[in-house]
Design a protein that fits this description.
mainly alpha; three-stranded antiparallel β-sheet
Length: 347
């Protein structure tokens, strides 16, 4: 027994046991890693099959088959196609790049870019699925979370959109304005509420979300509800410049509002006699002077410039089509030749 105990305490035996344990652990780790890698590759293959596109352009098909093109070049080319609006080719290249990459970080980036491309192409449900796949690889991907929230918003799934914003908020992002905007949309499209209840709920949010003034004015206009003049006079009328210019006076006689800018608009439209000493916009002053001499063939068009990304658009949007910022549009008037309808409606 004593001999056996000494033999067991032999240092060589301890080393053999130690190296055996290291070998077993390494062996298990290797095969577990190989298994997970194979599982991930299979998941990517299935993902690609779900969204695979068919292109009839022979040259583009040859490009997709060329395995000598570096991954970086594929992604750069896909980005270029996406920027130019050729979303089908961009999607095909991103899917090919996704199939070729083996690095987790690269997969996350490509999935995020692919999701944005589907989003820009209008495939909102697909973009949601792609962003969710991206978030499986990296749950703290703010770009994917941001676009996922907007995708849900456009699908009118406001509760889901707000849940995604909660995740962004946990990462330190400021999402108060986005949440208020989504809440306003859920109120606007809530079929259980009548028009007055919708307006009352939106009005109660104005203290913390003054940008909802335009939403309230839109609801007044769309539903034909009587405008609360006392409330309306407190609005920032610069944010309503285009709507006030085109407002039907049979619905709402804007001249009853004594706010300076509204009076300037009325003067420029010929609804009242010119009586403003100083104008907020040079364009309104010019049109008001033309009205005073009987010239009614001039009107206004509008350009909408995002205060965040500085891009300009011909149509107003509560959310910037480029950077997705909320209530960032600055309204710029442009003097233009009036149409016959404008001349008639302004008389």
């Amino acid at each position: 027994m004593g001999g056996m105990f000494l033999e067991y305490r032999d240092p060589m035996v301890g080393l053999i046991i130690l190296f055996s344990a290291i070998f077993v652990i390494s062996f298990v780790n290797y095969w577990w890693g190989a298994y997970k890698n194979k599982e991930e590759k299979a998941g990517i293959k299935d993902f690609i099959k779900r969204f695979e596109i068919v292109s009839d352009e022979g040259e583009f098909k040859l490009l997709l088959k060329d395995k000598t093109i570096p991954l970086e070049s594929l992604v750069l080319l896909a980005h270029g196609y996406g920027k130019s609006g050729d979303f089908e080719k961009a999607i095909g290249l991103y899917l090919l790049a996704l199939d070729r990459t083996r690095k987790r970080e690269e997969k996350e980036y490509i999935l995020s870019e692919l999701g944005k491309t589907y989003f820009n192409a209008g495939f909102l449900r697909r973009s949601c699925e792609v962003f969710l796949d991206s978030l499986k690889l990296h749950p703290r991907n703010e770009e994917s979370l941001k676009h996922l929230s907007v995708s849900y918003e456009k699908l009118k799934e406001y509760d889901r959109a707000i849940e995604v914003l909660d995740s962004l908020e946990e990462l330190g992002a400021k999402v108060t304005k986005q949440k208020d905007y989504l809440m306003a949309l859920s109120i606007k499209y809530d079929y259980k509420l009548n028009n007055k209840e919708k307006i009352d709920k939106l009005t109660s949010m104005l203290k913390n979300a003054p940008f909802l003034q335009r939403k309230i004015f839109e609801l007044w206009q769309i539903t034909g509800e009587k405008v609360d003049l006392e409330l309306f006079e407190t609005f920032d009328h610069k944010k309503l410049l285009d709507m006030l210019w085109m407002a039907d006076t049979n619905w709402f006689d804007i001249s009853t509002c004594k706010a300076p800018l509204v009076q300037e608009i009325c003067s420029a439209r010929g609804l009242i006699q010119a009586q403003c000493k100083k104008y907020t916009y040079f364009e309104l002053e010019v049109l008001s002077n033309l009205q005073s001499v009987g010239y009614k063939k001039a009107s206004l068009n509008f350009e909408y410039i995002c205060s965040e990304c500085k891009n300009s658009f011909p149509i107003h949007s509560h959310r910037c089509p480029n950077c997705q910022a909320i209530a960032s549009a600055s309204i710029e008037p442009i003097i233009t030749k009036g149409s016959y309808e404008d001349s008639v409606s302004f008389q």
